[in-house]
Amino acid sequence: MRRMSQEPGNRRRVERRVSSRIQREVMQIIFDRKLLPGAPLPTESELMEDLGVSRNSVREALKTLQALDIVDVRHGYGTYVGQASLTPFVDGLTFRALTRPDDTMDALNEILQVREVLEEGLIRRVAMTLSQPELDGLDVVVARMEAAGSDGRSFPEIDREFHELLYASLGNALVPQLLGAFWMVFRRVTRARDWTDGTPPELTARRHRDIVTALRARDVEGAERAMAVHFRGIEARAARELGETLDL
Predict the structure, then answer these.
(1) pTM score, two decimals?
(2) For the residues 185-197, what does the mean pLDDT come to?
């Protein structure tokens, strides 16, 4: 009886090991063949033959890789190399934060702290290299913030645009993806917890203006301080609003 009760568990462990092996081998095919996003992968039948596994095992492995955006399964058309976006990362961080109902503030602070460290390091790097046209572009974005703020309207999308534009000159494609990922997680968590930003929009606009003013003066430390003030404001608002919501 005991051996029979263990068999399903053993079978599942074996299936997981097989699936993990297939996943690694499919990724190795992508690496070895230097396949780019959108490129077709071998068919299920070809993978079965090449890897010596069943059709069901191939399908289970591909499902997992699809969830990670490593492959794109287009039913009726085939399987292609995915975009490898940060969507799984965003989903995982959001889930992590929202499944800690007694520690929502801690989870949110962790997200903010990582983003703050990332941005304070990045702003030091771009502070001395931003061109006048790039600074003018940031001015335009802040002016849109100020116009919205004067009407009492919040501007989360413009805020996101500002931070992504700020580091565009680095030419690092991962930077806007990471910033966008942290931004999305923060928005999802605060919406799920019914947090509404109580900071006057004109104050938020002014903090961004302070960042640009310091950058125009090539004041690296001033730009870092302005960015820190911006994040401290976000953290304080989140603590206040979420504290009230959760009765902390």
Answers:
(1) 0.72
(2) 80
- Of the pLDDT bands very low, low, confident and very high (cuts 50, 70, 90), residue 102 is low
Give 76: exposed, middle or buried? Use CB within 10 Å, 0-12, 13-18, 19+.
Answer: exposed
User: pLDDT digit string (tens) for 166-181?
Assistant: 999 999 989 999 999 9
Distance CA 230, CA 91 (A): 26
Rounded-to-integer distance, Cα 209 and Cα 203, Å = 10
Q: Could you tell me the end-to-end alpha-carbon distance of the chain, in angstroms, rounded to an integer? A: 50
DSSP labels for the chain? Answer: -HHHHHHHHHHHHHHHHHHHHHHHHHHHHHHHTTPPTTPBPPPHHHHHHHHT--HHHHHHHHHHHHHTTSEEEETTTEEEE----SHHHHHHHHHHHHT-GGGHHHHHHHHHHHHHHHHHHHHHHHTTT--HHHHHHHHHHHHHHHHHHHTT---HHHHHHHHHHHTGGG--THHHHHHHHHHHHHHHHHHHTT----S-HHHHHHHHHHHHHHHHTT-HHHHHHHHHHHHHHHHHHHHHHHHHHHT-
- CA dist., res. 43 & res. 188, Å (int): 37
Rounded distance between C-alpha atoms, residue 212 and residue 121, angstroms: 16
Cα torsion angle, 231, 219, 156, 94, sign = negative
CA dist., res. 98 & res. 194, Å (int): 12
